[in-house]
Amino acid sequence: MTNRKGRQSFVLPTLPVITHWACTAGKKESEGPLAQYFDVTSKDQYFGQKTWEQAEKQIQKLTLQTLLNKAGLHYDQVGMAFSGDLLNQCIGSSFTLRNTGVPHFGLYGACSTMAESLVLASMAVGGGFSDRVVAMTSSHFASSERQYRFPLGYGGQRTPTAQWTVTGSGAALVCAQGDGPKIDCCTVGNVTDLGIKDAGNMGAAMAPAAYATIRAHLEDMKREVHYYDRIITGDLGHLGKQLLIELANKDGLELEKRLEDCGVLIFDRETQDVHSGGSGCGCSAVTLCGKLLGDLHSGKLERILFCGTGALLSPTSTQQGLPIPGVCHAVSITREGS
Amino acid sequence: MTNRKGRQSFVLPTLPVITHWACTAGKKESEGPLAQYFDVTSKDQYFGQKTWEQAEKQIQKLTLQTLLNKAGLHYDQVGMAFSGDLLNQCIGSSFTLRNTGVPHFGLYGACSTMAESLVLASMAVGGGFSDRVVAMTSSHFASSERQYRFPLGYGGQRTPTAQWTVTGSGAALVCAQGDGPKIDCCTVGNVTDLGIKDAGNMGAAMAPAAYATIRAHLEDMKREVHYYDRIITGDLGHLGKQLLIELANKDGLELEKRLEDCGVLIFDRETQDVHSGGSGCGCSAVTLCGKLLGDLHSGKLERILFCGTGALLSPTSTQQGLPIPGVCHAVSITREGS
Q1: ipTM for the whole complex
Q2: Contact flag B108-A104 (C-beta cutoff 8 Å)
Q3: What are the counts of helices (DSSP H) followed by strands (DSSP E) for chain B?
Q4: Residue A336: its pLDDT value, please?
Q5: Which of A203, B84, B242, B269 fits a disulfide with A237 by CB distance 3.0 to 4.6 angstroms?
Q6: Is A224 exposed, middle or buried (0-12, 13-18, 19+ CB in 10 A)?
Q7: Which of residues 60-89 of B touch A (CB under 8 A)?
Q8: Choosing among A14, A80, A105, which should be mutated to test the B contact, i.e. which has the most B CBs within 10 A?
Q9: A338 or B99: which carries more pLDDT confidence?
């Protein structure tokens, strides 16, 4: 039995179904263009907790509880959870799941984590290893700024290419049976590094990985760009999206008309002062688990290729003068009934 | 189709084969009881690099290259790699794989990563999503001390319950076909937290997770302790191993005669001054990908349950007064031909 397709892709012979999805977002996100799609929002960036890291745990926990409420499930009815976040040692995810009894795989894929967790959930369900799996991630603006950049109180200037880490969390329930958008194939990304060293320009660092995965996906699956209503990267931001379009054009691939980016969709560039757009694991997570799955459910969209992108740097690698490797995983999701 | 067994386990209908394995270890490890099993060793703790973090990348890279040399493979013949490490943002793993073209899933399971990567590799191969997968991890004493504890030059006193992070890396090649030890089932751990807050006593924090997973495995698979020649935790150390035995005894489960621990096996307690034993992702990785798979290959062992244990803390969670959640994933490995 082989479900492999080409070099990096695999198909799902029986299609895993995303039966439910949920998301939580912070104040700034709920003032943006996607506000109507969020299940839980809070004006308190601490979400009732004492620290930013605990706030991030809390938004992931709220998201998971909302997901399970929607599905009418308890923790002990979840077979596995795949989750990770940006905090050192992924404490947002492990503290969310501690003592819930849910079997857990911890992931680190930086901002590609929502896609990575969906790819692995597809394998787990498609291979018959579980019949109900949670794919989940989160990020928090304040915990990220402190860990990756400057203390917020320092008031550091952000460069024009910088992106704004989304405070938010998204979770999807991937099942062997049920109604909802279905995952038909996935493409696993490899770590691509073209030598970009500017940690304030992660869109540029991730664009080559996004292009490599999209090209591999189309080749492996023998599909054209227009097979998809939307190819959605998450999250290259305004600059990275433009670079991706240019990389594709050089190869004669016209992405422009079908391409959207979660980092572009989530904030209003004119009024929200986010420079090159949104970023963070939560950015593509809330965009997928709010707007995109909703649009697939309602019939606004028929087929999307969700391409989570991650910049695999650390403050230490940057301080040591190393470039920023990028990765991108792609998940093909079709409307129910198709 | 379902391969699920009980609450946390799954079986592999066609057994993935570990056709090759390789490991690299540092100076202290190669002066210990397992020295004969290491493929690559170096007396230079920088492994020719300028920083400890790059040294850790280098030992993982050496391990992967050794693995592929043994198997006679190039990077482009590897379908997927599952890997992670202890460094913030797992830069040991992503920098090892950058620009190799190997599709990569980044993991964070702390010291359980070798087991976590094997569980996921089993799913990927067992589900037909890939036919040749690398499971890999690493740790480095100096990069861990700096990141988790004190600068080495500070000369901080280590507590009697402390464990010594192993400088080493292990990798296993999991294939759909071939000769070698086989994986017949796995048990996925959940995040268990009994309130231990002492970051200098991680064996105690992980022992409850190890016990929960071993008990779940035996129940799910309807097996007895003596089904296995060895149940091998990695890495509770001397104290954690004793606590695991006590937890099991309370339930009437006699683990003692079959139990070994990678943190106990890797160093000589009398002569190597490691207090409670070894730890770090590399500890169980080099023990498995050196001694244990070798003993399964040679016939010294017929069946083992490899139980990777991880302490899911971060320096931030400890500074914020939070307890240490633990996790343990179990992989049942049988000798070739069985």
Answers
A1: 0.97
A2: no
A3: 11, 15
A4: 66
A5: A203
A6: exposed
A7: 76, 79-80, 84, 86-89
A8: A105
A9: B99
